Predict the structure.
Amino acid sequence: MTIYWANFTPWSTLAGGILIGLATAMFLLINCRIAVISGILGGLLRSAKSDIGCRAAFVAGLIISPIVFSVAAPLPAVKIDADAASLIIAGLLVEIGTRYGSGCTSGHGVCGLSRRSPRSMLATALFMVAGFVSVFITHHLMS
Amino acid sequence: MGGAILIAAIAFNFAKIHPKALLGDVIRLPSTRQIDRRLVLGGLFFGVGWGFAGYCPGPALVSLAYSGSNPLIFIVTMVVGMAILEIQDRRRARTNAKQSNKIYSEPRMQMATTTLIYDARFNKRQQ
């Protein structure tokens, strides 16, 4: 297996991680919610509960953030070369997985591991391994 | 991820000691501790899907505004999938509720009839 050293940027990755951590911390301590992006998105579309404003604001922030970023610095290029069919398959798999696994990378990976939840540790280990295998098969063996 | 966990872990530890958020609500953390088949299969499905196109929900939302149609297709599919699963789950919950109603209502009916019979006998004897 090759490591793409051009894509290996430990410092900016660490900085990004710290920002995610800060956002998670603020969301928890200010809004008393755990930042589970899949759950927030789901709740936004599912119900008209009282916290809909909180959820909408969070999602809006996520969508607007690159626009704010682009004022200060050029946006890093996102290179996703997937066709529509694989995006649809991926979207469905991710939705089924987050629904039945009760969380995604933010919910289990960041929030769950931060509070040392055994469920999240298992879920994170499983989706990391499944992700590696999936990338290996789709991007290395099949192409 | 290490950086994020490092910072977030401080916040979660703080929340354990002071479980009141700045906006006044009590901080409630998930209390489920059971490891079941749903969690395991869900984690695996999520991982496969994540690796398949390279998106998980957060980054897809973030790149929605500036990275062409790819994240849009992904998010729209997620939302459609969500709607389908939601409808399915609600339907299942409804049939489950109906079934458990049946189970509960039948013995209750029986009990009601037996008390009626007893009452009738008691009344006869009194007369």
